[in-house]
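Researcher: Structure prediction, please.
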Amino acid sequence: MISVEDWAEIRRLHRAESLSISEIARRLGVTRNTVRSALASDRPPKYQRKRQRTLADAAEPQVRALLAEFPRMPATVIAERIGWQHSITTIKDRIREIRPEYVGVDPVDRFVYKPGAIAQCDLWFPETVVPVGGGQERVLPVLVMTSGYSRFISAVMIPSRQGGDILSGMWELISGLGKVPKTLVWDRESAIGGTGKVTTPAAAFAGTLATRIQLAPPRDPEYKGMVERANGYLETSFLPGRRFTSPTDFNTQLHDWLTRANTRTVRAIGGRPVDLLTTDVAAMIELPPVIPAIGLTHRIRLARDYYVRVDGADYSIDPRVIGRFVDVSASPTRVVARCDDQIVARHDRSWAKHVVVTDPDHVSVAAQLRRGLADERRRRTAAATRRHIDGHPVSLRALPDYDALFGVDFESTPTTVRTTS
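Model: Predicted structure follows.
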């Protein structure tokens, strides 16, 4: 195979200097057939490496037979079915090459986003652990939202990936913008639409904001590529070299960094997100007059323990409502309990797991209730004491004492029924 330089020289000598094939071959030291091939080709020569045979060649007919019936069968399952005993990478590479012949190609179009039309949302899980109190460190989710038109990135760390916490984070980011994007794109996050249908809390949230939540197709990360790229940007440009003392510290550092990051020039839009944000927000929907339902909520009948559990932590409740229903709501920062619309507990939310948060006033009330109950028992015991005609006290005996006195054993005679008149 000749080089691109020789190919170009052969064509020049033949066309510009009108040399014969034999003369060109003599001058360049190549064969006449090489000259003929160069003159017949209108494109420069390109080296193509000859495909090497691998162990997967022998197994390819079996692989194709399985893919013909089950196009999306995982490579590991195929390897098990055909009894593959060699490197899994070798068979995976071959399956990756031939699978498109059976599943087809699913192209992705590029969209031109209008101002205010759409924002993509996702959860990012940074590998860096964050201290959350009680000597604990956790890997916590970060809710990331990217606007389609301006590419403006906003993000906040949240306590968990439960629906109430995600909705709280979404409201914080949306209220920070000052308006509501017309469409919020999510993947199949379990708390938003894990079944392929938007969950009831998420639908209620969207309804209050007069927007809609659009779910991406399953296993299609390109559908929300903007926010996926934002996650990668945070991973590579924000996270390295940073240390955090608490979730609050994380959010403070993240907010400060995003303020600078949104002033960078984005090639896809030919401008800076911060400059396009005004136009983007102007086309969005106004914020609702009421705050949507957010946070973790549940209702429970308060047990004698007078504690309720929220996201793995236990919080004390006023023990005077033991036995009654208590409505508990938790934002990322506060836990509030109500009974008949009266607040019976208010705590700072703990992001640590398996901790007990106690209000000292609740402990004092519980002690008072116990003392009052003991006094009542003593009073009832005193009231149950009879007095003889001459005035001295006579204690009341229990009925089993009389059974024992007369030698009656009801346990050995189960057919006997005791009646009292």
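Model: The chain has 15 helices and 18 strands.
Researcher: Thanks, that helps.
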